[in-house]
């Protein structure tokens, strides 16, 4: 995600995160077995798992660790993908589909296991995710979704309206389902924890070092940087998500770089906190323009959702979320909003994570679809295994060609049209 171009207070996560480990810009040209581009969850996880294998790895980040989506998301750790188990099996067949289900189902485990194993300074909770249903059709879908995951051994349960109201603190949903594998983290602290773990394992991390070009000569990759020095490596793993820009031809038009907005209140009183997420769940709903909300580790109520495709121009661009929050939770009316932030996310054509290998030795990972914390942590581990061993079965999804969105230059127009349509079909809060 990207910092807004006008003065704002820091994001909630930047204001409350653990200190980052010390890193420096690249000062002199270097060599590595593997170069990782991007200091978010995917890049850091890849660097960590490669370094633990004894691979000489250098990571270059254009800004600071977790500057993009890894430091600006809602902090919800939700396993699975956008598609339900039956759909994934139909899309990929029984063998690969089952492998993908196991991978997707374990993504939350990967996050919480790393936090524990490396004793990371990351506030976290793991009491489950509730998906609230906003209309009768969505309620049927939610209950079917719970049943599908339950058939695969997951502790997933359907919920009625009263159950959802009690566990969330709002009566605006008709019911839903709960996935007890899920939880929440302080997302920027987690990115910084991954960076510290990667450094301790022997990876070399350089921040404030934008990569400006990639070139393959005589079987080696050379990455030029805006600072002047370059890195030569046998392999490159590119993990820039919505921020790859023009670094590789055709990559930017293969995603929609939509904007997502979030607000957070001041810490709630003990009285209010007793009735809002009393058991520590996190929530997102079944709307096409979904809403997602939770309490943070200091008792603030956080809500995220749609925003203008353009960059924000002022606090008014968050006003719709503030209104929605009070409609969803009228008990917080009058509580001041302390934080407003936003950024870019990468949406692929099929709402799946994509892995590309456009040239030998260059692996590109792109697309989170709202599940990036666990997904990209696990993807980094899988990519590290693939790069180290060459075993394509280590990858959860098959390598695919880079395919652009049609009429990419008009994306703002058709995204706005889709948003308008979804707003009408989703109904009011």
Q: How many alpha or pi helices?
A: 12
Straight-line distance between termini: 27 Å
Please, what is the average pLDDT? 92
Q: At the fourth CATH level, what is the homologous superfamily of the domain at 12-123 and 184-254 and 349-408?
A: FAD/NAD(P)-binding domain
Annotation, overall tally of beta strands: 19
What percentage of amino acids are in beta strands? Answer: 15-25%
Query: Share of helix among residues?
Result: 25-40%
| Chain oligomer state | single chain
The CATH architecture of the domain at 12-123 and 184-254 and 349-408 can be named as 3-Layer(bba) Sandwich
Give me the CATH fold name of the domain at 12-123 and 184-254 and 349-408. Answer: FAD/NAD(P)-binding domain
The first-level CATH class name of the domain at 12-123 and 184-254 and 349-408: Alpha Beta
Structural class: alpha+beta
Residue windows where pLDDT falls under 50 for at least 5 positions: 1-7
Cα shape: globular
Largest sheet: 8 strands, mixed
Cα radius of gyration in angstroms: 21 Å
């Amino acid at each position: 995600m990207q910092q807004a171009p006008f003065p704002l207070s820091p994001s909630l996560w930047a204001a409350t995160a653990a200190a980052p480990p010390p890193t420096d810009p690249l000062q002199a040209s270097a060599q590595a077995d593997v170069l990782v581009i991007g200091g978010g969850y995917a890049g850091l996880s890849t660097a960590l798992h490669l370094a633990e294998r004894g691979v000489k790895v250098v990571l270059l980040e254009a800004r600071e660790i977790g500057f993009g989506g890894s430091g600006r998301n809602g902090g919800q750790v939700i396993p699975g993908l956008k598609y339900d188990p039956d759909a994934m099996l139909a899309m990929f067949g029984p063998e690969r589909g089952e492998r993908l289900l196991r991978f997707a189902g374990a993504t939350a485990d990967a996050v919480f296991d790393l936090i524990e194993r490396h004793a990371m300074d990351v506030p976290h909770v793991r009491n489950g995710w509730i998906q609230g249903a906003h209309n009768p059709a969505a309620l049927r879908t939610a209950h079917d979704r719970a049943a599908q995951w339950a058939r695969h051994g997951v502790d997933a349960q359907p919920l009625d309206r009263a159950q959802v109201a009690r566990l969330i603190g709002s009566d605006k949903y008709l019911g839903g389902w709960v996935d007890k594998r899920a939880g929440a983290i302080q997302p920027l602290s987690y990115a910084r924890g991954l960076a510290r773990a990667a450094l301790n394992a022997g990876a070399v991390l350089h921040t404030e070092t934008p990569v400006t070009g990639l070139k393959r000569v005589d079987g080696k990759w050379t990455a030029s940087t805006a600072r002047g020095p370059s890195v030569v490596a046998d392999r490159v793993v590119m993990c820039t998500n919505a921020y790859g820009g023009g670094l590789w031809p055709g990559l930017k038009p293969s995603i929609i770089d939509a904007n997502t907005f979030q607000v957070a209140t001041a810490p709630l009183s003990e009285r209010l906190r007793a009735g809002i997420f009393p058991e520590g769940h996190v929530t997102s709903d079944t709307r096409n323009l979904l809403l997602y909300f939770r309490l943070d580790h200091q008792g603030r109520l956080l809500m995220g959702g749609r925003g203008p495709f353009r960059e924000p121009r002022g606090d008014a661009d968050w006003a719709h979320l503030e209104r929605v929050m009070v409609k969803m939770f009228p008990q917080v009316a009058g509580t001041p909003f302390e934080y407003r932030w936003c950024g870019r996310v990468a949406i692929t054509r099929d709402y799946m994570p994509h892995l590309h290998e456009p040239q030998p030795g260059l692996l590109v990972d792109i697309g989170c679809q709202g599940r990036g914390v666990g997904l990209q942590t696990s993807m980094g581990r899988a990519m590290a295994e693939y790069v180290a061993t060459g075993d394509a079965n280590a990858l959860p999804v098959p390598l695919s060609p880079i395919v652009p969105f049609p009429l990419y230059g008009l994306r703002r127009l058709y995204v706005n049209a889709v948003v308008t349509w979804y707003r009408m079909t989703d109904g009011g809060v």
